[in-house]
Amino acid sequence: MHMIQVVFLTVMVFFVIVTIHEWGHFYFAKRAGILVREFAIGFGPKLFSIKRGETRYTLRLVPAGGFVRMAGEDPELVEVQPGQTVAVRLKDDVVTRIYLDRLDDRSNVVRGEVEKIDIERAMKLDLSADGVTESYRVHPQALLITKGKETQVAPLDRQFGSKTVGQRALAIVAGPVMNFILAFVLFGVYFQMAGVPMENPDRLLIGDVVQGMPASKADIQVGDVIDSVNGVKIGGDSAKMIEMIGKSVNVPLTFNVIRDGKLHSIKITPMLDKASGVGKLGISAAAPSRSVTFTETFTFAGKAMKNMTIMIFDGFKKLVLGDFKMEDLGGPVRTAQVTSQIAEQGLTQLVSWVAVLSLYLGIFNLLPIPALDGSRLVFLGLEAVRGRPIDPNRESMVHFIGFAMLMLLMLAVTYNDILRLVRGEH
Questions:
Q1: Mean pLDDT over all residues of the chain?
Q2: Which of 118, 125, 303, 392 is the 20 to 30 Å CA partner of 384?
Q3: Annotated active-site positions, please?
Q4: Residue predicted with more confidence, 243 or 324
Q5: According to the model, what pLDDT value does residue 298 have?
Protein backbone atom coordinates (compact mmCIF):
# COMPACT_ATOMS: atom_id res chain seq x y z
CA MET A 1 0.00 0.00 0.00
CA HIS A 2 1.36 3.41 -0.94
CA MET A 3 2.44 5.74 1.85
CA ILE A 4 -0.12 8.39 0.82
CA GLN A 5 -2.91 5.82 1.16
CA VAL A 6 -1.62 4.75 4.58
CA VAL A 7 -1.49 8.33 5.85
CA PHE A 8 -4.95 9.05 4.45
CA LEU A 9 -6.44 5.94 6.08
CA THR A 10 -4.74 6.78 9.41
CA VAL A 11 -6.24 10.27 9.41
CA MET A 12 -9.64 8.90 8.42
CA VAL A 13 -9.59 6.42 11.32
CA PHE A 14 -9.17 9.26 13.83
CA PHE A 15 -11.72 11.40 12.04
CA VAL A 16 -14.40 8.69 11.91
CA ILE A 17 -14.28 7.50 15.53
CA VAL A 18 -14.15 11.04 16.96
CA THR A 19 -16.80 12.42 14.60
CA ILE A 20 -19.27 9.61 15.35
CA HIS A 21 -18.75 10.21 19.09
CA GLU A 22 -19.33 13.94 18.90
CA TRP A 23 -22.24 13.47 16.49
CA GLY A 24 -23.99 11.46 19.22
CA HIS A 25 -23.71 14.41 21.61
CA PHE A 26 -24.72 16.84 18.86
CA TYR A 27 -27.78 14.95 17.60
CA PHE A 28 -29.42 14.37 20.98
CA ALA A 29 -28.58 17.88 22.18
CA LYS A 30 -30.34 19.28 19.11
CA ARG A 31 -33.29 16.95 19.67
CA ALA A 32 -33.60 18.31 23.21
CA GLY A 33 -33.68 21.86 21.81
CA ILE A 34 -30.23 22.82 23.10
CA LEU A 35 -28.32 25.44 21.13
CA VAL A 36 -25.09 23.82 19.92
CA ARG A 37 -22.57 26.57 19.33
CA GLU A 38 -19.67 24.49 18.00
CA PHE A 39 -18.98 20.99 16.70
CA ALA A 40 -15.20 20.56 16.86
CA ILE A 41 -12.81 17.80 15.86
CA GLY A 42 -9.50 18.21 17.65
CA PHE A 43 -8.34 20.82 20.15
CA GLY A 44 -6.25 23.99 19.96
CA PRO A 45 -6.06 26.51 17.11
CA LYS A 46 -8.61 26.28 14.30
CA LEU A 47 -7.46 24.91 10.96
CA PHE A 48 -10.83 25.10 9.24
CA SER A 49 -14.15 26.59 10.22
CA ILE A 50 -17.56 26.86 8.59
CA LYS A 51 -20.95 27.84 9.99
CA ARG A 52 -24.12 26.05 9.01
CA GLY A 53 -27.35 27.10 10.68
CA GLU A 54 -26.74 27.80 14.37
CA THR A 55 -23.59 25.68 14.66
CA ARG A 56 -19.99 26.33 13.70
CA TYR A 57 -18.10 23.25 12.53
CA THR A 58 -14.36 23.40 13.14
CA LEU A 59 -11.29 21.27 12.54
CA ARG A 60 -8.56 22.00 15.08
CA LEU A 61 -4.82 21.41 15.20
CA VAL A 62 -4.34 18.85 18.01
CA PRO A 63 -5.82 15.45 17.04
CA ALA A 64 -6.61 14.36 20.60
CA GLY A 65 -10.41 14.22 20.57
CA GLY A 66 -13.16 16.70 19.95
CA PHE A 67 -16.05 18.47 21.63
CA VAL A 68 -19.57 19.79 21.18
CA ARG A 69 -19.99 23.20 22.84
CA MET A 70 -23.54 23.70 24.06
CA ALA A 71 -25.09 26.96 25.25
CA GLY A 72 -25.11 27.26 29.02
CA GLU A 73 -22.39 24.66 29.67
CA ASP A 74 -19.74 27.34 30.14
CA PRO A 75 -20.04 31.02 31.03
CA GLU A 76 -21.02 32.95 27.91
CA LEU A 77 -18.09 34.90 26.52
CA VAL A 78 -20.11 37.95 25.45
CA GLU A 79 -22.20 39.93 27.91
CA VAL A 80 -24.17 43.17 27.63
CA GLN A 81 -24.47 45.31 30.76
CA PRO A 82 -26.84 48.19 31.65
CA GLY A 83 -25.16 51.50 30.90
CA GLN A 84 -23.32 50.09 27.90
CA THR A 85 -23.74 51.87 24.56
CA VAL A 86 -24.71 49.55 21.74
CA ALA A 87 -26.28 49.64 18.30
CA VAL A 88 -29.13 47.34 17.33
CA ARG A 89 -30.55 46.30 14.00
CA LEU A 90 -34.29 45.79 13.83
CA LYS A 91 -36.63 43.77 11.68
CA ASP A 92 -40.32 44.39 12.25
CA ASP A 93 -39.37 46.15 15.51
CA VAL A 94 -37.61 43.03 16.77
CA VAL A 95 -33.87 43.13 17.57
CA THR A 96 -31.96 40.72 15.30
CA ARG A 97 -28.42 42.03 15.86
CA ILE A 98 -26.71 43.78 18.77
CA TYR A 99 -23.41 45.50 17.92
CA LEU A 100 -21.00 46.07 20.82
CA ASP A 101 -18.15 47.84 19.02
CA ARG A 102 -17.39 49.96 15.92
CA LEU A 103 -20.75 51.59 16.43
CA ASP A 104 -19.99 54.53 14.10
CA ASP A 105 -19.44 52.08 11.22
CA ARG A 106 -22.86 50.47 11.57
CA SER A 107 -25.62 51.49 9.19
CA ASN A 108 -29.38 51.08 9.46
CA VAL A 109 -29.17 50.68 13.22
CA VAL A 110 -30.57 52.27 16.36
CA ARG A 111 -27.87 53.43 18.74
CA GLY A 112 -28.37 54.03 22.43
CA GLU A 113 -27.55 53.20 26.02
CA VAL A 114 -28.78 49.97 27.52
CA GLU A 115 -31.10 50.54 30.48
CA LYS A 116 -32.37 47.01 30.92
CA ILE A 117 -31.60 43.82 29.09
CA ASP A 118 -32.77 40.24 29.52
CA ILE A 119 -31.77 37.86 26.73
CA GLU A 120 -32.40 34.68 28.68
CA ARG A 121 -35.99 34.87 30.00
CA ALA A 122 -38.01 37.96 28.99
CA MET A 123 -36.03 38.46 25.75
CA LYS A 124 -36.37 42.25 26.01
CA LEU A 125 -34.05 45.23 25.65
CA ASP A 126 -34.72 48.77 26.92
CA LEU A 127 -32.63 51.25 24.94
CA SER A 128 -32.28 54.97 25.74
CA ALA A 129 -31.55 57.23 22.77
CA ASP A 130 -31.73 61.04 22.84
CA GLY A 131 -33.49 60.96 26.20
CA VAL A 132 -36.20 58.59 24.95
CA THR A 133 -36.37 54.99 26.14
CA GLU A 134 -37.73 52.37 23.79
CA SER A 135 -38.47 48.78 24.69
CA TYR A 136 -37.70 46.16 22.06
CA ARG A 137 -38.29 42.43 21.87
CA VAL A 138 -35.15 40.43 21.19
CA HIS A 139 -35.36 37.64 18.62
CA PRO A 140 -34.47 34.23 20.14
CA GLN A 141 -31.83 33.82 17.43
CA ALA A 142 -30.44 37.35 17.61
CA LEU A 143 -26.69 37.80 17.21
CA LEU A 144 -24.25 39.62 19.49
CA ILE A 145 -21.45 41.04 17.34
CA THR A 146 -18.09 42.20 18.65
CA LYS A 147 -14.53 42.09 17.31
CA GLY A 148 -15.80 40.63 14.07
CA LYS A 149 -17.33 37.60 15.78
CA GLU A 150 -20.99 36.64 15.96
CA THR A 151 -22.45 34.93 19.03
CA GLN A 152 -26.07 33.82 19.01
CA VAL A 153 -28.08 34.65 22.11
CA ALA A 154 -29.20 31.65 24.16
CA PRO A 155 -32.66 31.90 25.72
CA LEU A 156 -32.95 29.87 28.90
CA ASP A 157 -34.98 27.15 27.20
CA ARG A 158 -32.12 26.65 24.69
CA GLN A 159 -29.45 26.18 27.37
CA PHE A 160 -28.06 22.84 28.51
CA GLY A 161 -28.87 23.41 32.17
CA SER A 162 -32.56 24.12 31.52
CA LYS A 163 -33.25 20.62 30.24
CA THR A 164 -34.34 17.68 32.37
CA VAL A 165 -31.77 15.36 33.90
CA GLY A 166 -32.87 12.68 31.45
CA GLN A 167 -32.42 14.90 28.39
CA ARG A 168 -28.98 16.05 29.53
CA ALA A 169 -27.88 12.51 30.41
CA LEU A 170 -29.00 11.28 26.99
CA ALA A 171 -27.05 14.04 25.23
CA ILE A 172 -23.93 13.04 27.19
CA VAL A 173 -24.16 9.25 27.03
CA ALA A 174 -25.02 9.32 23.31
CA GLY A 175 -21.36 9.94 22.41
CA PRO A 176 -20.00 6.69 23.89
CA VAL A 177 -23.11 4.79 22.74
CA MET A 178 -22.41 5.84 19.14
CA ASN A 179 -18.88 4.47 19.53
CA PHE A 180 -20.31 1.15 20.73
CA ILE A 181 -22.69 1.02 17.78
CA LEU A 182 -19.87 1.82 15.36
CA ALA A 183 -17.66 -0.87 16.94
CA PHE A 184 -20.44 -3.48 16.66
CA VAL A 185 -21.11 -2.60 13.02
CA LEU A 186 -17.40 -2.68 12.13
CA PHE A 187 -16.85 -6.02 13.87
CA GLY A 188 -19.76 -7.34 11.80
CA VAL A 189 -18.20 -5.93 8.63
CA TYR A 190 -14.87 -7.51 9.56
CA PHE A 191 -16.40 -10.99 9.94
CA GLN A 192 -18.22 -10.56 6.63
CA MET A 193 -14.89 -9.68 4.98
CA ALA A 194 -12.60 -12.14 6.77
CA GLY A 195 -14.96 -14.96 7.65
CA VAL A 196 -14.24 -17.24 10.62
CA PRO A 197 -11.92 -20.26 11.02
CA MET A 198 -13.38 -23.56 9.87
CA GLU A 199 -14.19 -26.16 12.50
CA ASN A 200 -12.08 -29.34 12.17
CA PRO A 201 -10.05 -28.04 9.19
CA ASP A 202 -8.37 -30.46 6.79
CA ARG A 203 -5.51 -28.08 6.06
CA LEU A 204 -3.58 -25.20 7.62
CA LEU A 205 -2.45 -21.84 6.29
CA ILE A 206 0.44 -19.56 7.16
CA GLY A 207 -1.33 -17.05 9.37
CA ASP A 208 1.57 -14.75 10.23
CA VAL A 209 5.27 -14.30 9.55
CA VAL A 210 7.31 -12.59 12.27
CA GLN A 211 9.93 -10.15 11.04
CA GLY A 212 13.51 -10.95 12.05
CA MET A 213 12.81 -14.68 12.41
CA PRO A 214 14.01 -17.42 9.96
CA ALA A 215 10.66 -17.59 8.11
CA SER A 216 10.83 -13.91 7.21
CA LYS A 217 14.08 -14.55 5.30
CA ALA A 218 12.56 -17.40 3.27
CA ASP A 219 10.06 -17.35 0.42
CA ILE A 220 7.06 -18.17 2.62
CA GLN A 221 4.01 -15.93 2.62
CA VAL A 222 0.88 -15.36 4.68
CA GLY A 223 -1.92 -17.41 3.11
CA ASP A 224 0.28 -20.24 1.84
CA VAL A 225 -1.37 -23.65 2.37
CA ILE A 226 0.94 -25.98 4.34
CA ASP A 227 1.01 -29.31 2.51
CA SER A 228 3.86 -31.14 4.24
CA VAL A 229 7.00 -30.70 6.35
CA ASN A 230 9.95 -32.99 5.45
CA GLY A 231 7.51 -35.11 3.48
CA VAL A 232 5.10 -35.55 6.42
CA LYS A 233 1.56 -34.48 5.61
CA ILE A 234 0.32 -31.89 8.10
CA GLY A 235 -3.37 -31.70 7.26
CA GLY A 236 -5.12 -29.73 10.02
CA ASP A 237 -2.78 -30.84 12.83
CA SER A 238 -0.93 -27.72 13.96
CA ALA A 239 0.49 -29.53 17.02
CA LYS A 240 2.35 -31.96 14.72
CA MET A 241 4.00 -29.08 12.84
CA ILE A 242 4.94 -27.25 16.04
CA GLU A 243 6.50 -30.43 17.46
CA MET A 244 8.59 -30.98 14.32
CA ILE A 245 9.83 -27.38 14.33
CA GLY A 246 10.62 -27.50 18.06
CA LYS A 247 12.82 -30.58 17.67
CA SER A 248 14.74 -29.25 14.67
CA VAL A 249 16.96 -26.49 16.08
CA ASN A 250 19.56 -25.61 13.44
CA VAL A 251 18.29 -28.49 11.27
CA PRO A 252 16.80 -27.41 7.90
CA LEU A 253 13.15 -28.30 7.30
CA THR A 254 11.57 -28.57 3.88
CA PHE A 255 8.14 -26.98 3.71
CA ASN A 256 5.91 -27.84 0.78
CA VAL A 257 3.29 -25.12 0.45
CA ILE A 258 0.58 -24.51 -2.11
CA ARG A 259 0.33 -20.97 -3.46
CA ASP A 260 -2.02 -19.97 -6.28
CA GLY A 261 -2.56 -23.66 -7.06
CA LYS A 262 1.15 -24.39 -7.45
CA LEU A 263 3.42 -26.41 -5.14
CA HIS A 264 6.47 -24.58 -3.74
CA SER A 265 9.30 -26.26 -1.82
CA ILE A 266 10.98 -24.01 0.75
CA LYS A 267 13.83 -24.79 3.14
CA ILE A 268 13.85 -23.03 6.52
CA THR A 269 16.11 -23.64 9.52
CA PRO A 270 14.55 -23.21 13.00
CA MET A 271 16.51 -21.14 15.50
CA LEU A 272 16.71 -21.79 19.23
CA ASP A 273 14.24 -19.84 21.32
CA LYS A 274 16.06 -19.30 24.62
CA ALA A 275 12.87 -18.69 26.57
CA SER A 276 11.24 -22.01 25.66
CA GLY A 277 14.35 -24.01 24.74
CA VAL A 278 12.82 -25.24 21.47
CA GLY A 279 13.12 -24.35 17.81
CA LYS A 280 11.15 -21.46 16.33
CA LEU A 281 10.58 -20.28 12.75
CA GLY A 282 8.50 -17.20 13.36
CA ILE A 283 5.31 -18.48 11.72
CA SER A 284 1.85 -19.16 13.05
CA ALA A 285 -0.67 -21.54 11.56
CA ALA A 286 -4.24 -20.51 10.81
CA ALA A 287 -7.25 -22.55 9.86
CA PRO A 288 -8.95 -21.80 6.54
CA SER A 289 -11.86 -19.42 6.92
CA ARG A 290 -15.47 -19.80 5.90
CA SER A 291 -18.12 -17.21 5.22
CA VAL A 292 -20.52 -16.27 7.99
CA THR A 293 -24.27 -16.16 7.69
CA PHE A 294 -26.30 -13.02 8.33
CA THR A 295 -27.30 -14.26 11.79
CA GLU A 296 -23.75 -15.36 12.64
CA THR A 297 -22.50 -11.85 11.83
CA PHE A 298 -24.39 -10.50 14.85
CA THR A 299 -23.30 -13.40 17.06
CA PHE A 300 -19.60 -13.10 16.25
CA ALA A 301 -19.69 -9.29 16.46
CA GLY A 302 -21.25 -9.55 19.93
CA LYS A 303 -18.62 -12.06 21.07
CA ALA A 304 -15.83 -9.84 19.73
CA MET A 305 -17.28 -6.86 21.63
CA LYS A 306 -17.44 -8.93 24.83
CA ASN A 307 -13.91 -10.34 24.54
CA MET A 308 -12.35 -7.01 23.64
CA THR A 309 -14.20 -5.25 26.49
CA ILE A 310 -12.73 -7.77 28.95
CA MET A 311 -9.25 -7.11 27.56
CA ILE A 312 -9.72 -3.34 27.83
CA PHE A 313 -10.81 -3.56 31.46
CA ASP A 314 -7.86 -5.85 32.21
CA GLY A 315 -5.66 -3.05 30.87
CA PHE A 316 -7.42 -0.51 33.10
CA LYS A 317 -6.91 -2.85 36.07
CA LYS A 318 -3.15 -2.90 35.45
CA LEU A 319 -3.15 0.92 35.33
CA VAL A 320 -4.99 1.18 38.65
CA LEU A 321 -2.76 -1.40 40.34
CA GLY A 322 0.39 0.19 38.91
CA ASP A 323 1.31 -3.04 37.13
CA PHE A 324 2.94 -1.24 34.20
CA LYS A 325 5.88 0.89 33.17
CA MET A 326 5.52 4.44 31.92
CA GLU A 327 7.22 3.32 28.72
CA ASP A 328 4.35 0.89 28.12
CA LEU A 329 1.84 3.71 27.69
CA GLY A 330 1.10 5.07 24.23
CA GLY A 331 -0.65 8.23 23.10
CA PRO A 332 -1.91 9.71 19.83
CA VAL A 333 1.46 9.33 18.09
CA ARG A 334 1.75 5.66 19.04
CA THR A 335 -1.88 5.05 18.05
CA ALA A 336 -1.25 6.68 14.67
CA GLN A 337 1.91 4.58 14.22
CA VAL A 338 0.10 1.31 14.98
CA THR A 339 -2.83 2.36 12.79
CA SER A 340 -0.50 2.99 9.85
CA GLN A 341 1.15 -0.41 10.36
CA ILE A 342 -2.23 -2.14 10.40
CA ALA A 343 -3.39 -0.14 7.36
CA GLU A 344 -0.47 -1.63 5.44
CA GLN A 345 -1.86 -5.11 6.17
CA GLY A 346 -5.02 -4.33 4.25
CA LEU A 347 -8.55 -3.01 4.66
CA THR A 348 -9.84 -6.11 6.48
CA GLN A 349 -7.42 -5.76 9.39
CA LEU A 350 -7.92 -1.99 9.47
CA VAL A 351 -11.69 -2.41 9.88
CA SER A 352 -11.10 -4.66 12.89
CA TRP A 353 -8.63 -2.17 14.42
CA VAL A 354 -11.03 0.76 13.99
CA ALA A 355 -13.71 -1.29 15.74
CA VAL A 356 -11.33 -1.84 18.68
CA LEU A 357 -10.42 1.86 18.86
CA SER A 358 -14.08 2.92 18.74
CA LEU A 359 -14.96 0.47 21.52
CA TYR A 360 -12.02 1.70 23.61
CA LEU A 361 -12.99 5.34 23.13
CA GLY A 362 -16.56 4.63 24.20
CA ILE A 363 -15.52 2.73 27.33
CA PHE A 364 -12.80 5.22 28.29
CA ASN A 365 -15.21 8.16 28.04
CA LEU A 366 -17.64 6.46 30.43
CA LEU A 367 -15.02 6.21 33.19
CA PRO A 368 -15.83 8.54 36.13
CA ILE A 369 -12.76 10.67 35.45
CA PRO A 370 -13.23 14.46 35.66
CA ALA A 371 -13.70 16.10 32.24
CA LEU A 372 -14.90 12.83 30.67
CA ASP A 373 -18.52 11.94 29.91
CA GLY A 374 -18.60 9.46 32.79
CA SER A 375 -17.83 12.20 35.31
CA ARG A 376 -20.58 14.42 33.91
CA LEU A 377 -23.02 11.54 34.24
CA VAL A 378 -21.98 11.15 37.88
CA PHE A 379 -22.82 14.81 38.55
CA LEU A 380 -26.19 14.36 36.85
CA GLY A 381 -26.83 11.28 38.97
CA LEU A 382 -26.07 13.28 42.13
CA GLU A 383 -28.43 16.00 40.92
CA ALA A 384 -31.20 13.44 40.40
CA VAL A 385 -30.69 12.07 43.94
CA ARG A 386 -30.39 15.48 45.64
CA GLY A 387 -33.20 17.07 43.66
CA ARG A 388 -31.02 20.05 42.83
CA PRO A 389 -27.85 20.56 40.76
CA ILE A 390 -24.32 20.72 42.11
CA ASP A 391 -22.86 24.24 42.23
CA PRO A 392 -21.89 24.87 38.56
CA ASN A 393 -18.68 26.64 39.62
CA ARG A 394 -17.55 23.63 41.66
CA GLU A 395 -18.42 21.21 38.89
CA SER A 396 -16.58 23.34 36.34
CA MET A 397 -13.51 23.41 38.60
CA VAL A 398 -13.53 19.61 38.93
CA HIS A 399 -13.75 19.20 35.15
CA PHE A 400 -11.03 21.81 34.60
CA ILE A 401 -8.63 20.04 36.96
CA GLY A 402 -9.44 16.70 35.35
CA PHE A 403 -8.87 18.09 31.87
CA ALA A 404 -5.54 19.60 32.93
CA MET A 405 -4.42 16.25 34.37
CA LEU A 406 -5.45 14.43 31.20
CA MET A 407 -3.48 16.92 29.12
CA LEU A 408 -0.40 16.38 31.31
CA LEU A 409 -0.76 12.62 30.86
CA MET A 410 -1.18 13.17 27.13
CA LEU A 411 2.05 15.18 27.02
CA ALA A 412 3.88 12.45 28.94
CA VAL A 413 2.74 9.59 26.70
CA THR A 414 3.35 11.69 23.57
CA TYR A 415 6.90 12.29 24.80
CA ASN A 416 7.27 8.51 25.18
CA ASP A 417 5.90 8.03 21.68
CA ILE A 418 8.40 10.45 20.19
CA LEU A 419 11.31 8.86 22.07
CA ARG A 420 10.18 5.46 20.83
CA LEU A 421 10.17 6.75 17.24
CA VAL A 422 13.61 8.34 17.61
CA ARG A 423 15.02 5.06 18.96
CA GLY A 424 13.40 3.13 16.15
CA GLU A 425 11.31 1.00 18.55
CA HIS A 426 8.00 -0.55 17.51
A1: 87
A2: 118
A3: 22
A4: 243
A5: 96
